[in-house]
Give the backbone structure.
Amino acid sequence: MDPEEILVDLGFKPKAGTSKPREATPKKEREPEAGLPTLNDEEQKLLKIIGFQPAHIDKITAMSHLATPQVIGLLQGLVLEGWLEELPGKHFGLHPARRELLAKT
């Protein structure tokens, strides 16, 4: 497969005969609810699975019933957004600054 074809398939370059690339699908956001603002359903699900005790990525994946690559992406996103912290041994736990917020829900 040609690199140009990959860029077209991903929507970064227009196909021949079209004027512009596809629009990126925006992240589904919910209204702030129950102390968990701007998190989609899957992100909220992972936070509830983790709770207040760090959990291994395999346990999180099994309990979420989501595909492993999707769980990895969601967890890394939550780490980058400051909701979670990655711990040794592929464990994930709530970021200390977020524990109080979640304790109120």
Notes: The chain has five helices and three strands. Confidence is low (pLDDT under 50) at residues 27-36.
